[in-house]
Design brief:
Helix content: 25-40%
Bound molecules: flavin-adenine dinucleotide
Shape: globular
Mean pLDDT: 95
Structural class: alpha/beta
Largest sheet: 7 strands, mixed
Oligomer: single chain
Order of helices and strands: EHEEEHEEEHHHEHEEEEHEEEEHEHEHH
Strand content: 15-25%
Low-confidence stretches: none
C-alpha cells in the first residue's frame, strides 16, 4: 500500500494552496475532475474568456497578491474600481441599495428612510434578530427589506431566509445604519468588501496556475476521486489504489466528506443552493460603465448579471448570468437560456444582438446555507475529525461563505499549525 504524509482532497484553490504551503513536505492531491481549479476554472471560446461565473479577486494581504503575481509571467492583470448597480423599477440604482435610497422616487425614498429609523423603536423595543430575515427587517425596516434585500437574497439562496443564521453572509453583507444612509446622500461612499478587484486577462485560472506552479510536479492525481476513508486505519480508497495517510486535508463538500468517512452526523443540518451560470458572448458591444447588476425582481429569472467585456474594454458583449435553485430542483438548461435571453432583452441589456457562443455550468453546491444547525454540527464534527487528523477546509469543507483569498489564508494557517506542532 502507498503511503503519504499529507493526503489532500481537491485541486481547487484551497487544495493547491495547501500543497504549495507544504513546500518540501510529502503530499499527494487527489482531484476527481480531469482539470485543476475547482470552481476557479476558465473557459475560452470564440475569443471570449469566461469563468464559472465572475471570479474576481479582492486581496487584503499584499504578500499573497505579490506571491501570486510573481508566478504569473507576462499576464496582464487589471485592477478595477467596480461599478455595480441594482435594477429597480426600470432604473439602475447604485449598489448597495440600502445606502442609495435617495435615488428612488420620492414616495419610496420616504418609506425607505422612515422604516429603518423607526425599526428599532417599536412599541415593544427593538425587533428580534434571531435569523437572517429578522435581521434584515430589524436593521433596515420593511421597505428596504421588501424592495431589495429579501427578494434578491431569496432568489440567490433559494430558501426561506428565516432559516439562515443572522450572520449567514458574514463580512460580505453591506451593513448600513441610518447615519450611513443619510451621509451617503451628500458624500457617496459605496465601498464594499469588493470595491476594487483584480482580474487577469487570461481569466481566473491564471491565479490557479500560479498556485499550481508551486506544487510538486506529479503530486496531483487528476480524475481520481476519493471514494472512501477508514479513519481508524488512516487509509483512503480510490478506484485505483489504497493510500495510507498521516493527515487528511479535504476541500470536498463537508456533507460528502462525512459520508465518505462514515461518521454519524445530522445530514439535515447541511443544505445549500445550486447556481446555474450562463456565459454568453454576443456579436457587439452592450452597456458600458457597469461590471455587474443585481436583480431583485422576481419576474426576472436571474439574480445577477456581470459584464466581462467592461473589465478589459473588449468590443463584444460578454456576460455571466446567475440563476439560483434549490438543491433538489431540476435545472432545465435550454428552457432557462431562452428565458434569460428574453429577460436580458426586457432589461435592455441586449437589443438586436446575436448570440455568438455560450457555455453553462451548474455550481452544486454554490452557496451553503449557514444556519444555527449547520454551524453547531460542523463545529462538533470538526473537533472530532481534527482529533483523527482529518481537516475539512475551504469554502465547502468549512461550510462557509468566503473568498478565494480567504481560502489561501486558511491553507497558510493550517500548514503553519502543522509545522509549529511538529517543530
Ligand atoms: C457563484 C459564485 C461566485 C463566486 N465569485 C467569487 C469571486 O468573485 N471572488 C472570490 O474571491 N470568490 C468567489 N467565489 C468563491 C470561490 O469560488 C471559492 O471560495 C473557491 O473557489 C473555493 O475553492 P475550494 O478549493 O475551497 O473549493 P472548490 O473550488 O470547490 O474545489 C474543491 C475541489 O475538490 C474536488 N473534489 C470534491 N470532492 C472530491 C472527491 N471526493 N475526491 C477528489 N476531489 C474532490 C472538486 O472537484 C474540486 O476541484 C464564488 C463562489 C460562487 C459559488
Amino acid at each position: 500500500m502507498e503511503s503519504v504524509r499529507n493526503l489532500i482532497i481537491g485541486a481547487g484553490i484551497t487544495g493547491l494552496a495547501t500543497a504549495a504551503f507544504l513546500g518540501d513536505e510529502d503530499y499527494l492531491v487527489l482531484e476527481s475532475d480531469r482539470e485543476i481549479g475547482g470552481y476557479c476554472k476558465t473557459i475560452k471560446r470564440s475569443g471570449f474568456v469566461w469563468d464559472y461565473s465572475g471570479h474576481f479577486f479582492h486581496f487584503k494581504h499584499p504578500e499573497i497578491e505579490s506571491w501570486l503575481r510573481d508566478r504569473m509571467g507576462g499576464q496582464e492583470v487589471r485592477v478595477i474600481h467596480k461599478r455595480s448597480f441594482v435594477s429597480y423599477g426600470g432604473k439602475l440604482i447604485d449598489f448597495p441599495f440600502q445606502k442609495n435610497i435617495h435615488q428612488l422616487p420620492q414616495d419610496e425614498f420616504i418609506d425607505c428612510l422612515h422604516d429603518p429609523y423607526f425599526a428599532r423603536l417599536g412599541p415593544s423595543g427593538p425587533t428580534p434578530e434571531t435569523n437572517f430575515k429578522e435581521m434584515l427587517y430589524a436593521r433596515f425596516g420593511r421597505s428596504i427589506a421588501e424592495k431589495f434585500l429579501i427578494p434578491y437574497n431569496e432568489k440567490l439562496y433559494a430558501c426561506d431566509l428565516g432559516t439562515l443564521d443572522k450572520d449567514a453572509m458574514g463580512r460580505f453583507f453591506p451593513h448600513a445604519d441610518v447615519t450611513d444612509i443619510i451621509r451617503n446622500m451628500r458624500a457617496p461612499d459605496n465601498a464594499t468588501y469588493n470595491a476594487t478587484f483584480s482580474y487577469p486577462q487570461g481569466g481566473a485560472i491564471e491565479y490557479v496556475k500560479a498556485l499550481a506552479s508551486a506544487v510538486r510536479p506529479g503530486a496531483i492525481a487528476l480524475g481520481e476521486p476519493l471514494l472512501g476513508v477508514q479513519p481508524a486505519r488512516r487509509v483512503a480508497r480510490t478506484a485505483k489504489r489504497e493510500i495510507r495517510f498521516e493527515r487528511l486535508i479535504s476541500s470536498a463538500p463537508f456533507d460528502k466528506l462525512a459520508k465518505l468517512l462514515g461518521i454519524a452526523h445530522d445530514d439535515a443540518a447541511f443544505t445549500w443552493n445550486k447556481v446555474l451560470v450562463f456565459n454568453l458572448g454576443f456579436d457587439k458591444k452592450g452597456p458600458r460603465g457597469v461590471h455587474w447588476i443585481y436583480f431583485p425582481d422576481r419576474a426576472r429569472s436571474f439574480y445577477r448579471v456581470g459584464f466581462y467585456d467592461n473589465i478589459f474594454d473588449s468590443d463584444r458583449l460578454s456576460l455571466y448570468v446567475e440563476l439560483g435553485y434549490g438543491r433538489n430542483d431540476v435545472v432545465d438548461v435550454e428552457a432557462a437560456l431562452a428565458r434569460v435571453l428574453d429577460d436580458l432583452r426586457k432589461e435592455g441589456i441586449i437589443e438586436d444582438h446575436a448570440l455568438v457562443d455560450h457555455h453553462s455550468v451548474v455550481m452544486d453546491p454554490a452557496y451553503v446555507h449557514i444556519t444555527r444547525a449547520s454551524m453547531a454540527e460542523h463545529a462538533r464534527l470538526k473537533r472530532i475529525l481534527e482529533d483523527q487528523r482529518v481537516y475539512p477546509v475551504g469554502r465547502y469543507g468549512g461550510w462557509t461563505y468566503c473568498s478565494i483569498e480567504d481560502n489561501i489564508v486558511e491553507a497558510r494557517a493550517l500548514v503553519a499549525g502543522f509545522q509549529s506542532r511538529s517543530a
